[in-house]
Amino acid sequence: MMQRKETKHVPANHAGNGFYGQDIISVNQFDRAKLDYIFHVADEMRVMVERFGSADLLQGKILANLFYEPSTRTSSSFMAAMMRLGGQVIPINNVQYSSVTKGESLPDTVRTLESYSDVIVIRHPEMGAAATAAHYAQKPVINAGDGVGEHPTQALLDLFTILEALGKVDGLKVAMVGDLKYGRTVHSLTKLLVNYDVEFAFVSPEMLQMPSDVLDVVRSNQRRPEGHDYSILEDVHEVIGHVDVLYVTRVQKERFTDLAEYDRVKDQYVVDDALMQRAKERMIVMHPLPRVNEISYTVDNDPRAAYFRQMRNGMYVRMALLASVLGKA
Ligand code: NCD
Questions:
Q1: Full domain range(s) for residue 188
Q2: I want to staple 177 with a disulfide (CB 3.0 to 4.6 A). Which of 119, 157, 203, 260 is the partner?
């Protein structure tokens, strides 16, 4: 699925980082060497933005930003990333005003956009849609969320934020809380974290537990000979005192067929000052955002709140990814 595009000519001097011309569909594509590379470039992007605001690395390049689902951060951070590198963007955030409404298929939409652009970012409500788009496109396709599947660029920025805040990933205890069934960010983050020596706690209502295919990855010894320790529980109080990372998610209302079920589980977890008092002094609270009620606003001022830093890091990581797949990193 993630092979280099057959028909693409890759000059020898671009062989270096292995990202040139590639699609980014799943976190399975990343090992520690690739992660180190992207984070190193993202760090450089941060320094560049802080010093100069922008650069001309991607001047003359065009990104098609194709969003079939709502987005604030992912969409605008990809746009900002492209623009800060001197490139330009075709933003399609309202597919209802595009030919999609006339019944155009995903392959045809993708073929159209790649005739005008150099890279396509796609968010779509169906799992596997980004892989389908990548199959039909010759240009690199980046998955910005495919239904309940994956959200690889979010997981990369999450991991980058953990490294920035805690200085390491090996040895950490990570709790993921909330909607682990439908939340694509926790699927991708879990699959990325198995590259490290991490212990997991999956905290959710019974009906929103982590899917078994993701648990299989945690249990398997593919990335680590002894597999990973993990626990599945319903009460966050059981783990709050031990965790280094508390990754909180929104209950994904749009994925429910029965809204009465949503109402039963929506406010089960709220991170507030009382809960934070029981947490370690050195830990972080993360959230991909948007939050609904999961984290009280009073927690925002706690130095352990990392969700706004995640948001900012998203742009640096996406700058690194765009520059890499376009062969300019
Ligand atoms: C997440 C998503 O779209 O999966 N948002 C994001 O990209 N930051 C999380 C969510 O919508 O709950």
A1: 152-311
A2: 203
Considering the chain, what percentage of its residues have pLDDT values greater than 70? 95
pLDDT tens string 26-53: 999 999 999 999 999 999 999 999 999 9
- Report the share of the chain in percent with pLDDT over 90: 88
Smallest CA separation from ligand 1 atom 1, residue? 288
Instruction: Indicate the DSSP class of residue 24.
Output: B
Domains: count for the chain: 2
CA of 304 to the centre of ligand 1 (A): 21
Task: Output DSSP code: residue 304.
Answer: T
Please state, as a whole number, how many other Cβ atoms lie within 10 Å of the Cβ of residue 98: 16
Amino acid identity, position 241 = G
Q: Do residue 137 and residue 216 come from a single domain?
A: no
Ligand 1 environment, Cβ below 6 A: 73-74, 145, 151, 154, 184-185, 250, 288-289
Asked if residue 317 and residue 230 are part of one domain, the reply reads: no
Q: Report the alpha-carbon distance of residue 119 to residue 141 in Å, rounded.
A: 6
Question: Do 203 and 305 lie in a common domain?
Answer: yes
73 is catalytic: yes
- Both 140 and 171 in one domain: the answer is no
CA dist., res. 263 & res. 260, Å (int): 5
The protein residue whose alpha carbon is closest to atom 7 in ligand 1 is 74
Using CB atoms within 10 Å of the CB of residue 300, give its burial: 0 to 12 exposed, 13 to 18 middle, 19+ buried: exposed
**Is the residue at 3 inside a domain?**
no
Residue 11 has pLDDT above 80, yes or no: no
Residue 95 lies in a domain: yes
Ligand 1 center–CA 40 separation, angstroms: 25
Look at residue 1 and tell me if it is in a domain.
no
Q: What global pTM score does this model have?
A: 0.94
Does 48 lie in the same domain as 126? yes
* Assigned domain for 18 exists: yes
9 annotated active-site: no
What pLDDT does 7 receive?
46
Rounded Cα–Cα distance for residues 32 and 104 (Å): 39
In sequence order, the β-bridge partners of residue 201 are: 175, 231
Could you confirm whether 102 is annotated as catalytic?
A: yes
What CATH code is carried by the domain that includes residue 216? 3.40.50.1370
Query: Both 166 and 305 in a single domain?
Result: yes
How sure is the predictor about 2, in pLDDT bands with cuts at 50, 70 and 90? very low
